[in-house]
Amino acid sequence: xxxxxxxxxxxxxxxxxxxxxxxxxxxxxxxxxxxxxxxxxxxxxxxxxxxxxxxxxxxxxxxxxxxxxxxxxxxxxxxxxxxxxxxxxxxxxxxxxxxxxxxxxxxxxxxxxxxxxxxxxxxxxxxxxxxxxxxxxxxxxxxxxxxxxxxxxxxxxxxxxxxxxxxxxxxxxxxxxxxxxxxxxxxxxxxxxxxxxxxxxxxxxxxxxxxxxxxxxxxxxxxxxxxxxxxxxxxxxxxxxxxxxxxxxxxxxxxxxxxxxxxxxxxxxxxxxxxxxxxxxxxxxxxxxxxxxxxxxxxxxxxxxxxxxxxxxxxxxxxxxxxxxxxxxxxxxxxxxxxxxxxxxxxxxxxxxxxxxxxxxxxxxxxxxxxxxxxxxxxxxxxxxxxxxxxxxxxxxxxxxxxxxxxxxxxxx
Length: 413
Prior knowledge:
- The chain is mainly alpha-helical.
- It has two domains: 1-189, Growth Hormone, Chain: A (Up-down Bundle), CATH 1.20.1250.20; 207-402, MFS general substrate transporter like domains (Growth Hormone, Chain: A), CATH 1.20.1250.20.
- Helix content is 83%, strand content 0%.
- It contains 17 helices and no strands.
- The chain has helices at residues 6-37, 40-67, 70-94, 99-130, 136-165, 167-185, 202-214, 217-232, 238-247, 253-276, 278-281, 285-305, 309-318, 320-337, 340-372, 374-394, 408-412.
- The longest helix is centred in the C-terminal third of the chain and has 33 residues, at 340-372.
């Protein structure tokens, strides 16, 4: 078991319920909007609005992180998010019959997503404060297992409950999940130093996360790799995968669902494996990241070139193993570099890059797949993973987890 205080369990359980609620409410809204309008564009605006809000909040989050304690920021964003979800439930109960109600719907989605983007860096930065340093790999893998389990269950369960209960009742269930998640999260306590007012510009506070990343060769290496690989992950979006299933392996919509479910199942089981071998990984995190990148490159090529639906299903399942090992290792290395508010600001800046890169990738790779073919798109992204591995190999010495940590106190000297 993880050697952690009870507040860690409040953190991961609240996060799991929140993630489950996030997916269920998006499922409800997409279905509701499509049933009301019959417009694919209106339906697509929901995930687009969510992604753009997360991107913007990543830029602004350091201002709030600097001003408030991380536990307070996380709790208050969740409370506001839950209150706005209640407004959303009441709006849907009233009915989406006019342009004004639809406008209010999208405004609420934007604000809820914005609050999510403010709270996420604070939440992620709390993990090192709640577990022993030697337990970081295990703690990160445990949280990943919980996240992947909620994602694996939420889509099929959400679809079933949607048919049984309907959109309005499902939204109220989602509201209930957020209420419980908020109660759990507000119980978290960590020792945080009081904020000392600083006479500095807002721009300086906003760019601190970027400065912390690029002043550390280890974090610069990890960030560049993450940008390249997140761009490559754009081939796994629903639109490209749908075309792949139809044209590359000659199957129908059902197999689109099978491959998605297989991917999340693989990630969940991979989390258990990483959790089991976390002790052995601790001193080899840099090697794990490099080996995982090579595996991901080869699996993308195999997946893209195969004509067998069963092989595609198998590859999508095992894809989760190197991906999970890489994500947990990277997260641990980041947490070993900074602590407290500095770590939260690093996560905010890092998240902005991830959301921005993935958003651009979905557009460019979608265009490439349409112009040159879906198989060629999977081959293309393997070169991004090759470049990522080359960068990691050239900087392999700085990726060792036993590298001297840069503490908050050292940065203040």
